[in-house]
Write a structure and sequence with these properties.
326 residues; alpha/beta; Rossmann fold; 5-stranded parallel sheet; 9 helices; binds phosphoric acid mono(formamide)ester
């Protein structure tokens, strides 16, 4: 038996009847407000446990298959770290070209295979709907780590958790999303999640050709959330509580010339941020290219590096939830 300070305490337990046990996590649409509060309370406990003991054995004996068909640093590494901090093990498949995918194996067969070895499968794939397809064929829970321009639900969860931990509230916020709102899947999922809360105002600032898709705006407006579309950041920055900056997604453009035209449409610098409030935060899912200048990194409002750490706690919570340990 480990010493008492290394033993998990409530709310962690072996609760096979836990609401998320055995479930896939494919879309933010699965998360109502009470699910979010539950997930964030578990993530907060994970944060305390990591700060207190670093690694503990909540998922000892469990195995994660980390299947990445697209590049990733944060999502891939944080899921691996999450499983290892919970005492579990990981099968990393990030170079699919060295797996049987290179021989033409289908996604259904690949996840069926991994389901024989692992207890949970995390997947990133360039095609919209690929995580749902994987879930249809896997005999183990599947977690969507990004399906093309579709969704990236665990990023939206960690983004929302970041706001909660940094600003101590999720209601009554003025949130400005900036940059590539067309291809940036994180902002689609985040807008949908924030629509669950009250007093939210969303501002979308982008070049006209990279605006927030109509279907996302329609879904958000069903929640009676005011939405404002702008091309100039100056018009909304002074009243912003959360500035969520996104990278222009070069890999999603068909023509290089179209990318070149918009790639540096907005650059956040220390100078730009003089117009913003002192108690607001700046977030970014990362990686960044030029859209946030390094001269802003040391500003306390720059929350984007802390945001990556919050991702670890949220992914620990999600793994514990689907494996029946939260
Ligand atoms: N934010 C994010 O998904 O980063 P990676 O592409 O590095 O995983």
């Amino acid at each position: 038996m480990p010493p008492k300070h290394q033993r998990p305490y409530l709310p962690f337990g072996d609760l096979k009847t836990a609401p998320w046990y055995g479930k896939n996590i494919l879309s933010v649409g699965q998360f109502g407000r009470s699910d979010l509060e539950y997930c964030f309370s578990v993530a907060h406990e994970m944060r305390i446990m990591v700060e207190r003991v670093g690694t503990f054995d909540l998922l000892k004996g469990k195995i994660l298959a980390n299947l990445f068909y697209e590049p990733s640093t944060r999502t891939q590494a944080s899921f691996m770290a999450a499983m290892q901090r919970l005492g579990g093990a990981v099968i990393p498949i990030s170079e699919v070209h060295y797996s049987s995918v290179a021989k033409g194996e289908s996604l259904p067969d690949t996840v069926r295979t991994l389901g024989c070895y692992a207890d949970v499968i995390v997947i990133r794939h360039p095609e919209v709907g690929s995580a749902a397809l994987a879930a249809q064929h896997a005999q183990k829970p599947v977690i969507n780590a990004g399906d093309g321009v579709g969704e990236h639900p665990t990023q939206a969860l960690l983004d929302t958790f970041t706001i909660r931990e940094e600003l101590r509230r999720l209601d009554n916020l003025n949130v400005t999303m900036l940059g590539d709102l067309k291809f940036g899947r994180t902002v689609h999922s985040l807008a949908r999640l924030l629509a669950r809360f009250s007093g939210i105002r969303l501002n979308y600032v982008s070049p006209e050709e990279l605006g927030m898709p109509r279907d996302v705006m329609d879904e958000v407006s069903a929640g009676k959330i005011p939405q404002r579309v702008e091309t100039r950041l100056d018009d909304v920055l002074p009243e912003t509580d959360v500035l969520y900056v996104t990278r222009v997604q070069k890999e999603r453009f068909e023509k290089a010339a179209d990318y070149e035209k918009v790639k540096d449409a907005y650059v956040i610098t220390a100078e730009t941020m003089k117009a913003a409030r002192k108690d607001m935060i700046v977030m970014h899912p990362l990686p960044r290219v030029n859209e946030i200048s390094m001269d802003f990194d040391s500003d306390p409002r720059a929350a984007y590096f802390r945001q990556m750490e919050y991702g670890l706690y949220v992914r620990m919570a999600l793994l514990a939830m689907v494996l029946g340990k939260a």
